[in-house]
Structures are given as C-alpha cells and as structure tokens.
## 1
Amino acid sequence: MRFYNTMSRKKEEFKSLEPGTVRIYSCGPTVYSYAHIGNMRTYIFMDELRRVLRWNGYKLLHVMNITDVGHLTSDADEGEDKLEKAAKTQQKSPWDIAKYYTEIFLRDIDRLHIDRPELIPRATDHIQEMIDFVEKLCERGYGYETSDGIYYDISKYAGYGCLSGAKLDEQQAGARVEVNSEKRHPADFAIWKKAPKEHIMQWESPWGMGYPGWHIECSAMGLKYLGEEFDIHTGGVDHIPIHHENEIAQTVGLLGHPAARLWMHGEFMLVNNGKMSKSLGNTYTLDDLEERGYDPLVFRYFCLNGHYRNKLNFTFDGMDAAKAALNNLRAAVAAHKGASDEISDEELAAFLSAFEDAINDDLNIPKALGIVWNMARSHKKSQKLYDLIMKCDSVLSLDLDRAPEEKQTAEQVDIDAEIEALIEQRQAARKAKNFAEADRIRDELKARGIALIDTPQGVRWEKA
Ligand code: AMP
Ligand code: ZN
C-alpha cells in the first residue's frame, strides 16, 4: 500500500506503527451551519481511506473531532466567532446550534455511507486537556501572554512551515496590517483567548475566563486518544498552510517531535469551475441534492470518479451522468446474479488483483471503479463475478446489489415533455396576469394526477 505524504511530497510505502492497527486523526466539522457537498467530498475521501485500510486487514482507531467551540471567522485569530454569530442570528444558544448541526452532520455522513470513526470527541468536552497543553507550552517557553490571550511563539520552532513549504520571512513580509501589536511575530497564533464578558462560551483558566484557540483542539484530542505518535492525519488542502502547520508546531513544542507520520489531504470540490460560496448561492447541501432527485449515493459515485488529490468540478450535468451511470452499473451487476457461465479462477484472480493494485496505489478509486465496470460488463455472466463485485463494493459502498430503476420508456418520455410544455404555458399565463388560464392549466394537470410545487429554482412537478 502506498500513500502520498504531503510532508515528504511523495508516495511512500505504508507501514503501521503498531502491527495490525492504524491510528488516524481527521479534522472534523465546525458545527455552526450545514456541511456542504464540498465538505462531504473530504469526508468521503476519509471514508475511502478507512475502507482501503480495512480491506488490507487493519483494525482502525480513528478520531474525528467536532469543533463545537466557536472559532473566529478566519483561520487567523480575528473577526467574529462563527458559532456565536450563528447563535445570535438564530436566537439560540451556541450549545443548541452546535448540537443541532452535529446531528445533521452525522445523519448526512450516514446517508453517504461514510463510516463513523471509532471516536467522535467534541471540543467542549476537552477544555481541561487544552488548558493543560497550553500551560505546558508556556512552561517550555513556546507560549507567551498578551492582553487578549496566550500566543504560540513560532520563532522558537525552526521547522515552522515544513508542511506547506512556506518560508517564515516571506510570511512576515506579506503579512497584513497587524491587528495585535503585542504579537511578537505576525504568524504567531492564539492557543488560548481571553473572553470578553459578552462572549457566551467561556471557561475558567489560569489566565482568567476564556476559550481555546482552534488549532490546540486537534493537538490536544489527538494526543489524548492516539498518543504521542500515530499513523495518519487527514484534512482538506485548505488546512495545510495554517491549521496543520500550527498543529505540528504545538505538538513539537510539547513533545519535541511531530505526532503524525503521514499527512493526507483531500483536494477541493469546485462548482462550475469556481469557488463554492454562500454569496454565489452554490453551497449545496445533501438535502438540496435530494430535493432535486439525486440519491446521496449518486453524489458518492460522482466523488469516487475523481482522485482525491485532484480538484473535482461539481455540475448538475455531471450529477445526471453519475445518476445514469450508477443505475447502469447496478443493472449490469444484476445480470450476474444466479448466472452460471464458466469463468476461470485465473480470470477472477486477475480482476481481483487489478482492483487491489488500484486501491492500494494512493487510493486510486476512479481506476478501481473502472475495473468493477469491466467485471460487470464481462460477456460471461456468473455468480462468482457477482460475489467478487460485492466484495469490491465493501470499498466503494455504492449498494451495487440494489435493483436498478427501470429505464424510462419512450412513451413516458413523451408524456413528460407534454407535462413540461403545459407547465411552461401556465408560467407564461401567470406572467401575463392571465390567472384564469393559469388556474385552468393547473386543474388540467391535477386531473392527470400531476402536482405542481413552487420552489426558488422554479416549478417542479410530481405524480400525486
Ligand atoms: P470546516 O467545517 O469548515 O472546518 O470544513 C470541514 C472540512 O471540509 C475540512 O476538512 C475542509 O478542508 C473541507 N472543505 C471545505 N471546503 C471544501 C471544498 N470546497 N471541497 C472539499 N473540501 C472542503
Ligand atoms: Zn484539526
């Protein structure tokens, strides 16, 4: 098994620290809002890693944190606290906000067949561990106090920037206007913040009431559950330059060495080749996709078609193609069920080893998916192939044994076109303020068993 290590910038042969068990830490969600499909891409990558390790016989001890302490609106220590901001706008407590979005997040990952990590600790349950960590950093000379918090002194750690390859002096030259003049270096970051009175989430500490910095959370929980050294750390590529760099600095400050051996990062999902952002209205959730008629596993299939280290461009055309492809694949697989064409053990072994080579080569899932397609398309139809495909589906987890939806008949396609034409006529009538005509069309559709649903994206119809 080989994986690309962000730290060494090359693929490395994998060997676990402890024989038979792999210890993994994954940066989890910040639960102040719905997770979007880009976030989900990163967790699907994390899940594929789990499944491939298990395929190779490893047991897993995998930790994914829930960030339920607000951290500020940027990776830096500035701006408004995200959780408190959501709490204010929704008139709920930050604890209620965090609980609500945590439940939705867990429901969504279940729907995507993302296996739940063995441990899912919440930051708010580990404040004492974080305080201890910060105290020790101060004792060891890596932390210093200012009027608004405790900061990590990056000048004490010569290796700072090792993961991203960023040079410290370049950061200094390029740094924005400094908001906190008490910081010794612009890239020094808060490991503990002193809380202003109005800050809702705050805890007692040796430095008065306050709350932890974001980066300390992962270092403290990783240490508690996985020990001073563990195998793999995952996250999205956006974590490389700040969050993970800071995690490493904190751990080295405490232990004298980094904790994670292998750093794996999932590339971003784009929408229509651009950034996903709230202001562009393109941060879709899993619910949005379901409302548009896409099963969560169609999105999973869509993601598995791209390698985790490449950007993946989300489009609805792409989703339509994934929907059709998954359905066709299930139909092709079903043809093997109970079939008895002769297939040699050599042929089966060749398929199996091609699949295995792909998944073990830095999670080449798109290639592995192609090999499953070849199995399914084989002109020999055999239960033995069916069983092999189902074994491979323990890695893909696409419910390949599910019955395919029936293809639309030509007649059904014509009927759908007619209905859509009527809906357009109705829209035109409404626009022209001809409400009598619009109502007549609605009634006609109703008589044919068609219900119209108005949505912000336009009118949708369903067979009542
Ligand atoms: P957050 O809840 O904002 O901390 O993000 C959760 C995870 O989603 C992190 O691992 C991010 O790196 C990842 N992430 C954020 N945006 C995207 C995106 N557009 N594509 C893929 N992963 C993303
Ligand atoms: Zn983290």
## 2
Amino acid sequence: MRHLLNPLDFSVEETNELLTLASDIEHNPKKYAHVCDGKKLATLFYEPSTRTRLSFESAMLSLGGSVLGFSSANSSSASKGESVADTIRMISCYADIAAMRHPKEGSALVASMHSQIPVINAGDGGHQHPTQTYADLLTIRSLKGHLNNLTIGLCGDLKFGRTVHSLVNALSRYDNLRFIFISPTELRVPDYITEMLREKNIPYEEVIRLEDKLPELDVLYMTRVQKERFFNEEDYVRLKDFYILTAKKMNLAPPDMLVLHPLPRVNEISVDVDDDPRAVYFKQAQYAVYVRMALILTLLNIHVD
Ligand code: CP
C-alpha cells in the first residue's frame, strides 16, 4: 500500500505518468465516470480549506465514488483530545482512502504509520502540499507543453509557503531550470531548499524587487503571506502587502509568461490581472481536480484501459 506524503514519493517517471493520466481524464471524463463505484474517500481536514477539500470531493464524486469527512478539528473528536493515530485507525474502517490536512508538520506521516488505507497529505503545516504541486506541474505542462527549460519566479511568502517548498523540490528533478526567489528578507526561502539547489547545480537567485525580474520569467508563482503561521500580528501587517501584482506591472512580463497562484489570494494579485490570458490561477484550480482524480486511481491501484 502506498501513501503520498511528499511530492518526491513519486519518481519523475511516476509523476509524468500521473500527469498523463490526469490529462486523459481531462479529455475523456466519461471513461472514468464509474471507475470508483462503491469506493469511499475520507477528507480529514483539521485546518481550513476551500480548494483542496472540495476538489478532492469533486474528484471522488466524478469517479463514481462517495465522500465522508470533517472540515475542522472542532467538528471532530480531535477537540476531545483524540490523536491522529487513533483517528486514522477508525477511518480505516470507514473509507478506502483518506486525504488529510493538519497544521502540524509530519502529521500525515504519523497518520500513514497507523493507517490501513492510503493516506494523502493535503498539507501539513508549513511543510509539504504534494497534491497542490501536482496541480501546479499539470498546469505548467498543459499550458507550456513541457516542464524543462524554464525560468520560474516564486514570489511572496517563501518561508512559510508549503506549496513553494513542494514545487521547488518537484521541479528540481527536471532539466535546465532556473529559479528566481522574490521575497522580503524576512520571508526568504528556507536554507534547505537553496542547499538542495546548490547540491544539484541548479541556478537560482534571491531578490527583493519583482519588477526587475518580471521580463525574465516563463512562470510567475505568486503566493499569499501566510497569516496563520506568523508569531505576531505586527510582522504580518508590515509584510502582507509587500507584493501586489497589477495589470500595469504585467506589461513588464513576457507575452507568454504564466501567472500561477495556489490560492486563496488576498491582495497579492490585483483583480485587474484576472482577465489577462496569462493569469491561469483559476484554470490551475480546475487542473487540481483532474490530478486528484488521477492520484486517487493510482493509490487505489485502479487501472482503466
Ligand atoms: N491551494 C489550497 O490549498 O487552497 P485551500 O487552502 O483552499 O485548500
């Protein structure tokens, strides 16, 4: 039995197969409409979510399966002190596969160690968010046609943004990539990420000004400043509007640059960017459903000819 805790749990070949399956699902949805008849997905969300939880539910329903779960720790027995280990033992009796989000780093790993069913990490604290990464990869691959030979700018809260950490890890296995990390000093990408890039001889830069780097980018990955992970409100208020991408700034970017954002956004992308054809963050949310459908099939070992 396999779990998905980290995007690197899948080899590059397996990742490419997953993305190819997701594209097939996108183009042939009827073929997959009943392949999970009788199967159940449990969504165990100890932390708020709109996209991840609902896109997992949409994914399972689109495969013919059903869903059960909770959307906050307060509405589960976690509020009475039940551990993740005990909860997943119970859930193993109720469902065939589980997607779990939790504010503590490593919680999905703990769940996987006590589970009788595949566990998908739907975000663990500031650590990893592998299914968002696969959605990001599918978006880039579908719209650029490849995942190699790209200059990727990541902008905003690179310290606490788990989607950034997962995405850089996953992309670092493709060829001829260059990363530009754009953040205030306080929200720099963690050292373990830059150390990994240096070990692999992957070029990267760390800069503060977005405008200077926009002309060089194939992909701009914007992120929200993660209010919930700040230790004090004062720092959050000082940094929250550090970057605001506007239609005017988009004039500096190449005509084929893609703007991605895992969402939710707060102020970091002005709504006047939404109609720009390069703004693909809502399409990215649609790709997330296809990739989560592909992941459910892969972890349940269901093959469709
Ligand atoms: N991208 C993402 O994880 O969104 P939610 O927090 O709404 O699930």
